[in-house]
């Protein structure tokens, strides 16, 4: 009975929409085309949250390289071509470079006090500067090189031992463990041994954090229905996750402030940030919450992206034994008796470099980049885009654009052997790290000097 007035109102809206002369409807339509949604919820009921990039790719086949959707009152635009990606991330970067405020992300980033989820403002600009100069500069990336070498050597030893005792190696968990350990050592100077209680606790904490960051909260689209998130238990889970993370960061910061801290903490990311805070050498007052937000970015932005890239590359090579043989031969010829490739030598391994590029093309880890939010009115491909519109760049679809790539579903290294296309944000057909102001600030760390 309670829903009857709502039902009548919706019915009237639908009837009016269809009774309106077509010309008048068109005149109102300044947005790019897109699938017809329902009143109030828009296209939410059609959304595929597990593989949104594939869903968007299918829509782009029907509605074009730029299309729009509505989620509640939020307008979303999806672009699926290299030219439009360039428009969004380079030509009109300043218009499209903010981030939407999404409940889970806001909470876990201390209200956007991190780098990734912060809106575009003075605060974000200063953090970006800190990243470029202090955290992920070529010198700093080089400084962490012994950590990467040590961890890769340990992994090789473990795999060799497993091979000699005929044990099966679980590639995914081995690689995820590697990237988690490296990021923990770089960010806060601690090595959590596998199979320890502390390590299992951290892995679980990260798992729930990823889940909360990707979680759908009704209140993001229907603020008046926020009670539904409480009712479903999501808010409780988010609060608990936040509290656990906060305690974890507090413990680490306390250890760093202790004069008897282990030597491994000297020069790590928390150490650098605490130093900057103490010196007051930045144009904003860096706070402990800022440091916590940045640590969260490193854990969330660094672990799974790097691991997934390695896992995809290995999967592609296993499926193509001939290509695998060629890459192995190139590496063995170069390495000689050494058991590990020095990072600076990767420049001399063109076939191996092509593996990385082709993996980034076919299996980008951040398939839609991070969502951008428009800061002002703008025109994109002739359409009028209002402020606070959310923009997605479908990198996964661009990698499947037949106007750019031949045999696009095939893992073919030759396409990169005699080409200058790279993934550093200047070639919009290969945007694995994004581009422009909001492009990945840790690209050098992400690819270890490639
Ligand atoms: C293979 C590894 C990695 C890949 C493929 C990757 C990819 C990306 C992508 C696609 C974006 C969004 C760019 C955009 O919206 O235009 C991004 C942003 C970001 N990444 Fe990475 N990333 C990697 C490694 C890392 C690492 C190791 C860290 C930190 C230790 C990191 C920290 C960040 C941060 C903080 C942002 C947000 C930048 C901003 O909004 O201003 N990433 N990354």
From TrEMBL:
Heme binds at residue 440. GO terms for molecular function: heme binding; iron ion binding; monooxygenase activity; oxidoreductase activity, acting on paired donors, with incorporation or reduction of molecular oxygen. Its main location: membrane. It is found in: Membrane. GO terms for cellular component: membrane. The chain crosses the membrane at residues 294-319. Its cofactor is heme. It holds the Pfam family p450. The keyword Heme applies. Keywords: Heme, Iron, Membrane, Metal-binding, Monooxygenase, Oxidoreductase, Transmembrane, Transmembrane helix. It is a single-pass membrane protein. The keyword Endoplasmic reticulum does not apply. May have a role in maturation, such as during flavor formation or other metabolite production specific to aging tissues. Belongs to the cytochrome P450 family. This is Cytochrome P450. It comes from Solanum bulbocastanum. The lineage of its organism: Eukaryota, Viridiplantae, Streptophyta, Embryophyta, Tracheophyta.
